[in-house]
Specification:
heterotrimer, A mainly alpha, B mainly alpha, C alpha/beta, B: 11 helices, 3% strand, C: 12 helices, 15 strands, 40% helix
């Protein structure tokens, strides 16, 4: 009960930021909320299904580039058109990569997803006409019915709504039989299979859902900043979000969101503390793995 | 493409593959026996290269760098295994990935603090600073021949150790069934430490041999790490033979991708990996 | 470095809390530095920063009568983080003037925002054509170079040397692509033919396969774009493959900048074009190099010079408007009329706000970069697609 009240209070606090009109905080917290969705979607794989995927950044980047392409080449600005196309693109990529990667179990899966992320990175970095390492602008950002999403306040509220919807959607899904099967697969895939569940299909479904949500994050990010870049595909991004999930507490949904908020702030202020900022992050990761395997959510529960 | 150019490109690919094998073999051995996926493996390659530069700049000899540097890195491997990796046995893959990812960040900072961010060249040893003419227009640097031969020798030595020695027997047993090894009363902890240290030394040796060829620069370990993953996935985890085949395949497809498909060449290696996954999901030797 | 950054950031927070005074005469002038202080390009970021502070110190730490307050952000040369970092400086720290970055991808992200927010911006390194081309803006100036400027003049140099058949080889990212496009423009205009273009994925440094190809193509010369680690390795591999004495190597100046030591004897004889050379024989250069060496213990380089010129440019313009950054129109006009006797030679802005500067022809002789002439006098970037040029 207390947890629920805290969650609602947190959501309302985030909503309130939207009314501040402060240009810095709107973009800063907008970015942080995108991080929340990104981490929650990965938690579906890591925390619930037991799949450690390093391909998450690939779907983020793909949807972002799709939006840029649709806007620049085809002049699509209506989100009712661009959002479904971008999500479908991310989902299709997740289907192919997931299908291939899931042929390999366990640790193979990690390496294969990493390799495919890297492949995407190179494709978007090297392919002619995609702006190379300089990236691309989204010439015309989504707008419809008088709502212009290049306005920071409008974009902020859109992201807030996306965050709430994604959270409720994932919660619902995990409480449904589908979610229980996923948790069952994580605990003992053999048993689930002998119970007659097509476990690979379940895992692939989870992978595609998570990939689509990662695509949503890419779409929102490109809308908020109007800029896409191959660095968004880099395996460091995948590694960072994986760390966010563990820091927040995998398998809790709200934990990874909390982790994302916290990391955004640590990143903003931490850089002032030391030049060896990356060493600090490295030490933090190691400490969390060794001493706080259940993450912040685990601390809160105790 | 003329035949002589084709032959030369095959040589180029094989040589690149052999160096990759040195790195990938350590990665696959450590995973096969210790069950730990080590993201910091590329950092050992990078640190090896920096050590080679540092020592060679002071002694003027790459040989001295290898003789001093390899033991130093083996020791570092031992320390890392005791302090960090040992806590990962029986932990899930997520913990392994993240902890070793944290190590990558730490080692990058260590390199920055110790050696700075500059790019450094390492001279090829003067005995090997000549070129072997091949055909009319082509020349093949002797040092490349040397590294290729050195890699083959190391591969052969590894094969001997693993097939013929008591240590090798334990490694093989550990790779197939760790509990049984323990039941036989073999000190698994010691076995693991030695093996991890050997894997570290192999990666560092590869970095040292590669230093004159690639120059030494920050972030050089990460590219090698991802390629090693591809090698291991293609070859099959824990298999030295697979790593050998995989490394040659990656080296050759990268080389020919560059010549035949410029612009998309970096994707060629991954396409090959996808094909192997489709046909043999457990790798060539799996 | 870390200490000083921490201190002025602390000062920043304090003054922010106290509320900003808009009276231009009294308030400190806040200058944002968006530069890499970690990662591959950290050395570049540090050289630019140190040069800026060195020059500012000589000017009494004042620009247009206002005391300078630096606000530095480590951009890590990561374009993915760039929008957030720019937001931090413009909307968060509310800097009066933004300077940086090194990485073109970061610059593109920055351009997107400063064009909207109209922040006065000085690009101190990134050479992307768009900055003073398609995306040029009245509030954006560049004190470094455009990619075009570093490569176009080399075409004429090669043709004059009688090399009419060339192979191009480059890192396939925007810096490389734009350099090649500029070179090709000049080379075909002068009647040269390009036998083959070899694009190497960035940042791969395995060149052996392509070198074998070059040897079999037997062109008159090879023009390349590589920088940093790639440049060091390429030049060594080129010599190792026995090509150095057979097919002369040309490039934009970044082929040898900062990596001559790593390249050693392999770099001997390479001709490159750039808007600066360490050995330039002029008063301001000698003075600046000596001062930089004394202050930092390091040798100044092309990056430090951009930092040096940035502060001088700002000082001249801000003096003219008495430090009133709110009068942006007047300030921009003042910047446009700046004339500088820079360590790189005469410096002024084009209509697109890119430097008009000499491009020097340099050659490595005896392990040193020597200037053997001017490849193009007062080279002006064509500023394709810039609306401010008519």
């Amino acid at each position: 009960m207390i947890a629920r009240i805290l969650l609602v209070a947190g959501a309302l606090a985030l909503l309130a930021v939207g009314f501040s009109g402060d240009r810095f905080w709107l973009q800063f917290m907008g970015k942080a909320m995108i991080g929340c969705i990104f981490a929650m979607s990965l938690d579906l794989l890591v925390g619930y299904t037991g799949l450690v995927s390093l391909a998450h950044a690939a779907f983020f980047g793909l949807a972002a580039y799709l939006l840029a392409g649709l806007s620049n080449a085809a002049g699509f600005v209506n989100p009712l058109a661009t959002l479904p196309i971008c999500l479908a693109g991310a989902a299709a990529a997740a289907l192919v990569i997931g299908w291939l990667s899931l042929r390999a179990a366990g640790v193979y899966f990690i390496m294969v997803t990493l390799a495919f992320t890297q492949m995407f990175y190179y494709l978007f970095n090297d392919a002619p006409g995609l702006g190379g390492s300089d990236g691309l602008y989204v010439q015309e950002r989504p707008r419809f019915l008088g709502l212009d999403f290049s306005e920071r306040t409008t974009a902020y509220f859109a992201i807030w709504i996306a965050l709430v919807i994604v959270y409720l959607l994932l919660l619902r899904m995990l409480r449904a039989p589908f979610g229980h099967v996923l948790v069952g697969i994580r605990a003992n895939e053999q048993r689930m299979r002998s119970l007659g569940y097509p476990t690979r299909r379940y895992k692939l479904t989870a992978f595609v859902i998570a990939g689509t949500l990662a695509g949503l994050c890419g779409y929102l990010d490109a809308t908020l900043y109007g800029f896409v870049n191959p660095a968004q595909f880099s395996w460091r991004q995948s590694g960072l979000v994986l760390m966010t999930v563990l820091l927040g507490g995998k398998g809790t949904l709200y934990g990874p969101a909390l982790g994302a908020l916290l990391l955004t702030f640590v990143e903003h202020y931490g850089e002032r503390v030391t030049e060896h900022w990356n060493a600090l992050i490295g030490a933090l990761v190691i400490a969390v793995v060794l001493f706080l395997p259940r993450g912040l959510a685990g601390l809160l529960r105790d | 493409m003329s035949f002589s150019l084709f032959a030369l490109q095959v040589l180029n690919g094989v040589e690149q593959g052999l160096l990759l094998f040195l790195v990938a073999s350590g990665l696959t051995l450590v995973f096969g026996v210790l069950g730990v996926l080590n993201f910091a493996h590329g950092s050992f390659y990078m640190l090896g290269a920096y050590l080679a530069y540092w020592i060679a700049a002071r002694t003027g000899s790459l040989l001295a760098a290898v003789l001093i540097g390899v033991p130093v890195m083996a020791l570092l491997g031992l320390v890392v295994e005791r302090l960090a990796i040992a806590r990962l046995y029986k932990r899930d893959h997520l913990s392994q990935v993240l902890l070793t990812y944290g190590l990558v960040l730490l080692f990058n900072e260590l390199q920055r603090a110790l050696f700075g961010n500059d790019v450094h060249g390492v001279d090829t040893p003067t005995v090997l600073a000549f070129r072997i003419p091949l055909g009319s227009a082509q020349e093949w640097p002797a040092y490349r021949v040397f590294t290729a031969v050195a890699c083959i020798l190391v591969a052969a030595a590894m094969r001997q150790v693993i097939l013929r020695t008591r240590f090798g027997m334990r490694v093989r047993a550990g790779a197939s069934n760790a509990e049984m090894v323990e039941a036989l009363g073999i000190d698994v902890r010691k076995l693991f430490s030695v093996l991890f240290s050997a894997g570290t030394a192999l990666a560092a040796l590869a970095g040292m041999l590669a230093a004159p060829l690639t120059t030494v620069y920050p972030g050089m370990g990460e590219g090698v790490l991802v390629l090693s993953f591809v090698v291991v996935v293609i070859g099959g985890i824990g298999s030295i033979k697979g790593a050998f085949l995989g490394a040659l395949l990656v080296g050759l497809s990268d080389t020919f991708g560059k010549v035949l498909l410029p612009g998309f060449s970096s994707a060629v290696v991954y396409a090959v990996m996808a094909a192997v996954l489709l046909l043999r999901p457990r790798g060539l030797a799996g | 470095m870390s200490l000083s950054r921490r201190t002025f950031l602390g000062a920043t927070a304090a003054s922010f809390a106290a509320g900003r005074v808009f009276a231009a005469s009294k308030a400190k002038i806040r200058i944002g530095l968006l530069l890499p202080y970690s990662g591959t390009y950290a050395a570049l970021g540090n050289n630019i920063t140190d040069a800026m502070k060195l020059v500012a110190g000589k000017l009494g730490n004042k620009l247009g009568g206002r005391e300078i307050e630096w606000v530095a952000v480590d951009d890590e040369s990561d374009p993915a983080k760039a929008p957030a970092n720019v937001n931090k400086l413009i909307s968060g720290e509310k800097v009066d003037i933004l300077t940086g970055p090194v990485h073109s991808g970061v610059a593109m992200a920055m351009m997107q925002i400063v064009r909207q927010e109209k922040t006065l911006t000085i690009v101190t390194n990134a050479g992307a054509q768009a900055v003073t081309g398609q995306l040029c803006a009245p509030n954006v100036f560049r004190t470094s170079f455009s990619n075009w400027q570093t490569s176009y003049p080399c075409a004429e140099v090669m043709l004059k040397d009688g090399r009419k058949k060339a192979v191009l080889m480059f890192w396939n990212y925007s810096f490389g692509q734009e350099s090649m496009a500029a070179f090709k423009e000049g080379y075909s205009k002068g009647g040269g033919t390009i036998v083959k273009e070899i694009a190497v994925p960035f940042p791969q440094t395995e060149f052996q396969a392509n070198l074998s190809e070059i040897a079999s193509l037997k062109p008159d010369a090879v023009f390349v774009f590589f920088a940093g680690a790639g440049a060091a390795k390429f030049v060594k591999d080129y010599a190792d493959a026995g090509l150095r004495d057979k097919i002369p190597l040309y490039g934009s100046g970044f082929l040898t900048e900062g990596v001559l030591g790593a390249q050693g004897a392999a770099a001997e004889g390479i001709k490159t074009t750039l808007h600066y050379a360490d050995s330039l024989d002029n008063g301001p250069n000698k003075k600046f190099r000596a001062a930089f060496k004394e202050a930092t213990g390091r040798e100044a380089d092309v990056y430090a010079v951009a930092g040096h010129d940035t502060v001088h440019v700002l000082a001249q313009a801000l003096d003219k408007v008495q430090g009133d950054t709110s009068a942006q129109k007047e300030l921009i006009a003042a910047l446009e009329s700046v004339r500088l006797d820079s360590p790189r030679g005469p410096f002024r802005f084009s209509k697109a706000h890119n430097p008009i500067q000499n491009i020097y022809l340099r050659q490595v002789k005896g392990g040193k970069e020597t200037v053997i002439g001017i490849a193009q006098k007062e080279a002006e970037d064509p500023a394709f697609g810039c609306a401010m040029v008519k």
